[in-house]
Amino acid sequence: xxxxxxxxxxxxxxxxxxxxxxxxxxxxxxxxxxxxxxxxxxxxxxxxxxxxxxxxxxxxxxxxxxxxxxxxxxxxxxxxxxxxxxxxxxxxxxxxxxxxxxxxxxxxxxxxxxxxxxxxxxxxxxxxxxxxxxxxxxxxxxxxxxxxxxxxxxxxxxxxxxxxxxxxxxxxxxxxxxxxxxxxxxxxxxxxxxxxxxxxxxxxxxxxxxxxxxxxxxxxxxxxxxxxxxxxxxxxxxxxxxxxxxxxxxxxxxxxxxxxxxxxxxxxxxxxxxxxxxxxxxxxxxxxxxxxxxxxxxxxxxxxxxxxxxxxxxxxxxxxxxxxxxxxxxxxxxxxxxxxxxxxxxxxxxxxxxxxxxxxxxxxxxxxxxxxxxxxxxxxxxxxxxxxxxxxxxxxxxxxxxxxxxxxxxxxxxxxxxxxx
Length: 421
What we know:
Number of strands: 8
Shape: elongated
Largest sheet: 2 strands, antiparallel
Number of helices: 13
Strand content: 5-15%
Distance between the termini: 127 Å
Radius of gyration: 43 Å
């Protein structure tokens, strides 16, 4: 077998010029050199080194501050100029005496701006760049949908309050509200579709001249959604209403049953008791809506044949709530529907004075109905006598002849006022 020799390794000397005393010492690693004897002064850095480091740190800090300020300024400008969160145009009222923080908080709370501090910072920056400061003026302003903070600030600084308004009474159907909006000459544009029944909040709406009619209807829808969500969240516990939509249906019946605000909660309590006990609501306005629909009225008194007519909304024939609202209820009717009076009453009927007589038992109710019929007979007798007297007076008036033809004065019919149910 052939011997293979390893290459010879040169010995590693621990110190230059010193041979190892033994093979073992040859294999040991080199030792660190000994510390030199005597006291030696440490090497000092150049005197200018500390000043350079200080200046470098200051410059670095300034650079960081400039980057942060630039980033914040860019973010502030982006938020200030970007489209706002308002889904539809809305009117905001700024009371006299409110400061800029209160105004910004109000705008943020109403969903007009996204951040009050950005609004305040932009306002202060604008004043800092002007020779004379500007103020946010009190008044009622229309804020366009998706208006930026810059647009809102300009509107409040200029103080151009709106002047036009349209009042939508409680209890109108969506079709009737659309007719009112179409008849407003200061509005513009066409209405594409009639909104769903019960989706519009009755109120007095302020707007600027030339506003689109469809946009005003959208504002009414947004206001209804906002108010209904708030009322539903604060509703009375254990109501037999399963959803906000059922609450609007129930509130629309309460709205049409009485025009007196002091009775709404009590009427709602009666209908709520009927729902809980499984009784039919037997509401005349639901019968009328089932026949007339969005037109809102029959143009005549309701009859017994109407009560027996089969429609989806006739609560004399169906159990529970109708499938849709029968009008657009106002705030007080919604509040009454979701916070009804605690009562055991199950019946009510008109008392002839514009209000209602409430009863707990059917016997009491029948007596109230009998009394109402007496009041109705007396009212009709008075109306007939007044109409007869007016007719007689018209025929007693002197006749006027003109160009061979006779013109006689026609009797003027007296208005017939239907008693509130």
